Amino acid sequence: MNRRHFLRNTAYTGILLTSGAFPLLADSKDPDITKLTILHTNDVHSRLDPFPMDGSKNQGLGGVAKRATLIKRIRKEQKNVLLLDAGDIFQGTPYYNFFGGEIEMKVMSELGYDAATLGNHDFDGGLDGLERQLVHTKFPLISSNYDFSNTVMNKKTIPYTIFKKDGIKIGVFGLGISLDGLVLRSNYADTQYLDPLIEGQKWATFLRNEEKCDYVICLSHLGYKYKDDSNKISDVILAQNTNDIDLIIGGHTHTFLNEPDRLQNKDGRPVLVTQVGWAGIVLGRLDVYFERNKKGSCVTCKNLFVGK
Predict the structure, then answer these.
(1) Which alpha helices (H) appear in the chain, and where do they start and end?
(2) What is the rounded CA–CA span in Å between residue 248 and residue 261?
């Protein structure tokens, strides 16, 4: 999906993506239906300011102030909101070069992010650099397949978290890409990389069956899909080779999807895969509607341009 096509088709599409057992309008006020609004970003890469007005294709887009305005408006309009990030918070502007991630973490905390996972560039300052920024972080970092046991990041991340919204139980876990070849070995030291398919299945099943979650979200920095390496695990491969995941919010490949892919998991059930490019150009938005008995659900997409 190229950027121009994405920008032309993304905002306020309101497309019904998956259907459960009931018909539904996006603005339904039915008391038997609970609405969950999921806002998401990925690969913001320290882009706190809008792109400059220099005639480039991204001019005027992005910026944390404009994102904050959108988030504030949506929270005022909607009762149940989650704000999530799929990694690569750091690296890309002088904010990171001068402050090492402090500003990014403070900003995300002020915006009220509920959770984030780690991308490969979040290791660019080394584990010590990442650990130092946690004092500024008021949201959990979720990592389900990086084992930090023998590092300064030991017990500084969590493998999953659970949110309860108006009777709906949402489980969230996070998967990262292999750091070998992407990050200097000295920057991730004794971090052990665990197979994302094995760990993804383990935590999804745990959240669904043990914790009885109604909706399971994976924050992924594996990348959307790869044409040049069919053996490389991507979000598409994860979706098709596991079960118990409802939604994969992705990052790493900077892929602009104007709506989530609707795929089938290994049991033939639907799983959505989404990603909103990079640099905070778009604030992803999905509205998930649940029947009171939680047997049916559907999703609409209303991704929002930031600064347009």
Answers:
(1) 3-9, 64-77, 94-99, 102-111, 126-132, 185-188, 196-205, 235-240
(2) 10
- Under 8 Å CB-to-CB from 33, ≥6 apart: which residues? 24, 289, 290, 291, 292
- Identify the pLDDT of residue 295: 66
> E-strand spans in 177-295?
192-193, 215-221, 247-249, 261-264, 270-274, 282-291
Task: Go through the domains of the chain in sequence order and give each one's CATH number.
Answer: 3-25+43-305 (3.60.21.10)
Determine what percent of the chain is predicted with pLDDT higher than 70: 89
Q: How many CA atoms lie within 13 A of 248 on its CB side?
A: 38
- Position 292 scores a pLDDT of 78
CA-to-CA distance for 119 and 223, rounded, in angstroms? 10
Q: Is the pLDDT of residue 14 over 90?
A: no
Contacts 24+ apart (CB under 8 A), 137-141: 137/105, 137/108, 137/109, 138/109, 139/108, 139/109, 139/112, 139/113, 139/114, 139/115, 140/115, 140/116, 141/115, 141/116, 141/117, 141/174
Phi, psi for 125 (deg, rounded to 5): -95, 10
| DSSP secondary structure string for all residues of 18-43 | E--SS---TT---TTEEEEEEEEE--
Q: Report the helix count and the strand count for the chain, using DSSP H and E.
A: 8, 16
* Total residue count of the chain as it appears in this document: 308
Integer Rg of the chain from CA: 18
Alpha-carbon distance of 196 to 163, in angstroms, equals: 23
Rounded (10°) CA dihedral 221, 164, 270, 295: 170
